[in-house]
Fold this sequence. Notes:
Elements: E1 2-7, H1 10-22, E2 27-32, E3 42-44, H2 49-58, E4 63-66, H3 69-73, H4 76-82, E5 87-88, H5 92-99, H6 101-111, E6 118-121, H7 124-132, E7 138-142, E8 151-154, H8 157-169, E9 180-184, E10 189-197, E11 202-215, E12 219-230, H9 237-257, E13 264-272, E14 277-283, H10 290-294, H11 302-310, E15 323-331, E16 354-356, E17 359-362, E18 365-368, E19 372-380, H12 383-394, E20 402-403
Amino acid sequence: MKILILGNGGREHAAGWKIKQDNPDAVLYFNKGNGGTAQIGTNLSLETVQETVNFAEKNQIDLTFVGPEDWLVKGIVDAFREKNLPIFGADQKSAQLEGSKEFAKDFMQKYGVKTAAYQTFNNFTEANEYARKQKFPLVVKADGLAAGKGVVICQDAFDAEKALDEMFNKKIFGEAGNHVVIEEFLDGFEASILSVFNGREITPFVSAKDHKKIGEGETGLNTGGMGVAAPNPLFTQTHFQAFEKDILQPTLNGLLSENMIFAGIIFFGLMITKDDVYLLEYNMRMGDPETQAVLPLMENNFLDIITQAIQGQSVKLRWKPQSAVCVVMASGGYPLNYETGFEIKGLDSVATPCFVAGASLGDGKLYTSGGRVLNVTGLGNDLKSAQQNAYENVSKIHFDYECYRKDIGEV
Length: 411
Ligand code: AMP
Ligand code: GLY
């Protein structure tokens, strides 16, 4: 099998690692990949949808796996379908569930998916007038893709006015801020549930807990994710049942009614309050770094799962009866300014999956090249031992100005 994986982070390295573990003969291509993927496949530098279609056609790629959302929103799945090239990911219309918050909220409302109450606006004056009359905190969201930065939790009317001014007038998120969703603030804890959609059924993965802030105890700036624990220790069977009834089932009804049919991933970003489970957002791709924690727990051959989903067959997921803790090692200064180009040492003695997020390969050595550098995943029979395993291995790895949170997996 020849497999093309689109993307260049830890998520894509983890997907390739899992496929290669289960199918040692698989030949992997990554676009554009990184210093980790270069060790298990060939890195490419395709820029456009058309170049990617041409590459897949010419090289007889058996399967293309889409990592990040921007390719989906650009319609790569539709372009592959036109040429009958197998691809795993959402088509352009379905990708709007991630690409437009207004589209997603309207879909949730239409099909009764439990979510925070909201209103959408296309101009500053009306939005600001509405915001002033609401209870605080209040959440203001730019409609389009804003690299995870388009959500502002406002403590009072001044905050809301500032956020709306920045989105509508100063256009800090460009086009993404032409429409704005204002929604009710939900107080609780978050859980990430990935799932596979085969065009007929949605099959959920084990739950995960993402640690988004740079500082221990969830303090400081937001990041792309500093670590993950799976299964999420706070997410109970009762929460899962509420998720199935109030979120998964109505989502499936909506997808089928709207003819949003594809084989790919749906990621449910949940907020669990003291009474209920709410959907904050859909992502139409695997989470990063959730993937780096959940794939090492998967017992199935991931390639079989993808192939079955593409063929519209039912998939049955099996999980190791274990926990996983993924610790992100970052460059000091991240998520603001940081230096790169430092050699990463000690990897040879690491005895657990270690995925490259931002490092490049030069004369057989890895050098830091991004804010998030490595994702070290420890496994164990319970959360505590998974955590110990992760941190034991993290302590063997060294690069200048390394930094990581010491509390990933704490409840
Ligand atoms: P989103 O991109 O919609 O998931 O929002 C990013 C983050 O903002 C979420 O992971 C939450 O931490 C927070 N957030 C979004 N919407 C709400 C809400 N209605 N209430 C509280 N926090 C929220
Ligand atoms: N970890 C959250 C995301 O991938 O968006």
